[in-house]
Amino acid sequence: MNRKVINFVKGIIVIAVFAVALCIANRILMHKSEDGYTQMQSYYKQIDNTVDVLFLGSSKIYCQIDTGILWDEHGIASFDLGGAEAPPWNSYYFLKEALKTQKPKVIFYDATIIGYRQDVLYQPEVWSMTNNYGMHWNLNRIMQLRENTEQDSLFKRLLFPLDTMHSRYKELSKLDFVDENNSINYKGFDYRNTTEVFETPDVSTMTESFVFDEKHEKYLRAMIDLSKENNIPFVVMITPYVVTPEEQGYFNYVEDICMEEGVTYIDFNKMYDELSIDFSTDMAEKVHLNFSGTKKLTEYLGNYIVNNYDIPDHRGDAKYSSWDIDAKINRENRINAQNNEENQ
Question: What are phi and psi of 242, to 5 degrees?
């Protein structure tokens, strides 16, 4: 009888050691990326109910909303929770996951992806992974991946990261063992520091509304419903980029939905003068603002937030010290970018 007990204990130990080794290998081999993975991982590390303003969406969020500026100028505790080219269904499951630990006082969703990727109903494999693998193992993670993969075979392969990441051992670096951004201090911002020159788009004459695929609409409305269920104001916005008239037609339909749902809608492609956006100096490329443009957009949003919502100023509160560190890092990055530009 004692031998049976001893063998049973040995078996449990072997299984436990194998499980721990598997978890460690999975963590090390996981592709580290500030395109969604690190944003979600760092979000989990935030102290419960400290994120007052949640920004949700694609890279248009985490490349263009400088959480450090919002903190420095207003003491706003904000977080950029987005994924690379994240369609509405990805953002919906991000939001469901986010509300488990935080109760934001307002949520901003950037719907730009609907206009310039309205024909994309499933993401490429690489973006599916960066949007998904940062989430904890639960139903939200599984459902997000299921919505984002068309073939059952691809869904089953991507479901377990080691199936797709096992060969990364050949390219491991220090980042795979010490990811500095994967911490409570990281609030999701991942800046762009290049400059491309474009003509200023003009979509003022586009008044038609183009209906996009029902899958996009379903999940846009689902996010709105989820925010209403939690009594959280939900703001839909379109951030500046080199928009085309056709894309503006889809945004006009987004506005129609927002009017019907009774939520705030802001189209920054109709507000270039108010933002002082200059398409010869403020664009990193067609879709993203650079440091200069990001500063203008973020400062406008900061003023808009404090003028329209009851958001406390947490500067000086030890509980929010991680936002001090985030702001310091972002500030240093802006200074270095400016110095590099002046030295070119």
Answer: -85, 80
Please write the tens of the pLDDT for every residue from 306-340.
999 999 999 999 999 999 999 999 999 888 877 76
Give the Å distances, CA to CA, from 60 to 5, 85, 152, 234, 310: 58, 8, 30, 17, 25
Q: Over range 116-131, report the average pLDDT.
A: 92
Binned at pLDDT 50, 70 and 90, residue 167 comes out as: very low
Looking at the predicted structure, is the pLDDT value of residue 100 above 90?
Answer: yes
Contact predicate 32/38, CB 8 Å = yes
Q: Which two tokens stand for residue 258?
A: 């927002």
Phi and psi (nearest 5°) for 266? -130, 120
Between CA 303 and CA 70 the distance in angstroms is 9
pLDDT value, residue 161: 74
CA–CA dist 283, 117 (Å, integer) = 19
